[in-house]
């Protein structure tokens, strides 16, 4: 029985650790800048991680992903630094093609059980100055980074107009001196209850019809942003020490070619209380199906679930094949 995991964040590596310890000899494709993110996923774009158990002093996101990888390899996971770009889930065993070798005449990798743990990529605007100040005052996860010392008792700005923006701005008020929400339109897209909660918070100011067009700093950290009025096109500076994107996420599912059921926004659907997808033998773990929590710890838990679901599936499959062989 061949067991493949696609994805290298906390979900993928947790699944690999469980599978390897069960002597299933998993093969893990960690990707090579898949979704424009390094192997290890979104954690590699995070600086200090202070809410993952076991690290009371915190740990850099990249160091945490290195430890995931080291632990996976310790138990025998074979890790391949290549990206899967195409799959055929209509046959069994399943077929997977690697980037650069995904033509019809190229030989695919095959497996009996597949765990999809490719995550979701936070959407960014790539404004001027973003590359310089990303993770030096700019982030796409308030829950992950908002409590960091760089943001405490500082003025912060959240970009977005939906529920996520309102929720993240409200969360940031626990640490910030004040939070601004830059909204492109003159109304929120958020639900009325979330919008009301944000607007009634004395530590939140909503900047209507406002675009954030540039991030500026002192060469070390972000110190202010440039705002543009959506109507007059006038520019002004806003002094802030942090900018948080809250404009959504894109699940990394394009390589699946619509073979697995998804919701309207592309997140994989699973059977409630499990990681089972609509195709037997294919399982979804982590942020690729979780659009509510999107945390490293919940992704890890989901990876554990997927590994156990896949192990049970392979046991049942082996028993079924033995039963068929006995009848011949």
Nutshell version of this structure?
This protein has helices spanning about 10-20, 60-75, 130-135, 140-145, 165-170, 190-200, 295-325, and strands at about 5, 25-30, 50, 60, 80, 85-90, 95-100, 110, 115, 120, 140, 155-160, 180, 205, 210-215, 220-230, 235-240, 240-245, 250, 280-285. The protein has about 325 residues and is an alpha/beta fold. Helix 5 packs parallel to helix 6.
Write a concise keyword list for the protein shown above.
7 helices; five-stranded parallel β-sheet; single chain; alpha/beta; elongated; 20 strands; 26% helix; 328 residues
Distance between the termini: 21 Å
* Strand percent estimate: 15-25%
Q: Summarize model confidence as the mean pLDDT.
A: 94
What's the count of strands?
20
Describe this structure in words.
There is one protein chain. By secondary structure, the protein is α/β, with parallel strands linked by helices. The protein has helices at residues 10-21, 61-74, 130-133, 142-145, 163-172, 192-199, 296-327; strands spanning 3-6, 27-29, 48-49, 59-60, 78-80, 84-88, 94-98, 109-111, 113-116, 120-122, 138-139, 155-159, 178-182, 204-207, 210-217, 222-229, 235-239, 242-245, 249-251, 282-284. Helix content is 26%, strand content 25%. The strands form six sheets. A five-stranded parallel β-sheet has the order 5-2-1-9-20, covered by helices on one side. Strands 11-18-12-13-14 form a five-stranded parallel β-sheet, with helices on one face.
């Amino acid at each position: 029985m061949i067991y493949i995991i696609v994805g290298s964040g906390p979900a993928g590596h947790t699944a690999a650790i469980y599978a390897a310890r069960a002597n299933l000899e998993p093969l893990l494709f960690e990707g090579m800048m898949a979704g424009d993110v390094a192997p290890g996923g979104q954690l590699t774009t995070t600086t200090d991680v202070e809410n993952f158990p076991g690290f009371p002093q915190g740990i850099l996101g990249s160091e945490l992903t290195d430890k995931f990888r080291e632990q996976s390899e310790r138990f025998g996971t074979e890790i391949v630094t290549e990206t899967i770009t195409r799959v055929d889930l209509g046959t069994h065993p399943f077929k997977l093609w690697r980037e650069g070798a995904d033509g019809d005449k190229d030989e695919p990798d095959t497996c009996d059980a597949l765990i999809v743990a490719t995550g979701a990529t936070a959407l960014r605007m790539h404004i001027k100055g973003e590359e310089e100040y990303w993770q030096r005052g700019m982030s796409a996860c308030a829950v992950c980074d908002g409590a960091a010392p760089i943001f405490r008792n500082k003025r912060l700005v959240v970009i977005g107009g939906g529920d996520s923006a309102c929720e993240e701005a409200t969360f940031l008020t626990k640490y910030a001196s004040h939070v601004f929400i830059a909204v492109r339109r003159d109304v929120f897209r958020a639900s009325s209850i979330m919008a009301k909660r944000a607007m009634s918070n004395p530590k939140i100011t909503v900047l209507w019809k406002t675009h954030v067009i540039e991030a500026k700093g002192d060469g070390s950290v972000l110190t202010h942003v440039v705002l543009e009025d959506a109507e007059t096109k006038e520019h002004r500076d806003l002094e802030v020490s942090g900018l948080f994107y809250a404009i959504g996420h894109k699940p990394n599912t394009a390589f699946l070619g619509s073979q697995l059921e998804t919701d309207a926004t592309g997140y994989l659907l699973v059977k409630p209380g499990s990681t089972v997808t609509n195709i037997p033998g294919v399982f979804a773990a982590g942020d690729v199906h979780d659009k509510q929590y999107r945390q490293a710890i919940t992704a890890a838990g989901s990876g554990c679930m997927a590994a156990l679901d896949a192990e049970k599936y392979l046991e049942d499959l082996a028993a079924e094949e033995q039963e068929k062989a006995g009848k011949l």
